[in-house]
Amino acid sequence: MNSSKPIVRKSSNSSVDRIYERLKQMAMNYKFRPGEPLNEVELAASFGVSRTPLREVLNRLVAEGLLDFVPRRGFSCRALDTKMIFDLYEVRCGLEMMSAKLATERATDAEVSTLVTLWKTASQKFGELSPLECAQCDERFHEQIATLSRNAELLHSLQAINARAHYLRLISMEKVHYRHNTCDEHQLILKAIQKRNVEAAVNCMSAHVSLRQEQLVEVIKEGIARLYMT
User: pTM for the whole thing?
Assistant: First the structure.
């Protein structure tokens, strides 16, 4: 009688998650040239996996708007399209305004106080952080407000948009005046939320995101120059 135990294969979920996180960061930061087909064989070899889990990740990133897929051409990094970016920021503005409204109405005093303290600490060292750290800090601020809205779908949607807009946010945070404006505008948003002034919170958030839209033209030009002219 064979008493050997059956071989139990480990789930491939850990490998898929690992590949997903790395490829997502690469796509968010345009580590692939826009429009250039991705070499699946080389990618699979670099991650030490077969093409099956790689394909699973690539399809997931397509669904999230971080990659493109064209039949018979395969997967490629998305283009930095001006119209798409403006559309994205219009949607972001709506989400952020709703986020501010609901957070002002639903967050507890303790939660608001915690967010105020967190941002005060972050803003004090904002000028010393790297552009990447500033971008991540800014994303967290907006996502924390969305968390306080008690609306999981709103938070999920905002996180998806932040991922697609990350590259431009990163370029923006290289500019000192942009960092200063971000800090000042975040303070105004927090003051309105603290006072439970829904109208002021929504208006401050709208002004904050709309100002980013006005600056988008300059940032998009810089992004295109880096991606297509170097």
Answer: 0.86
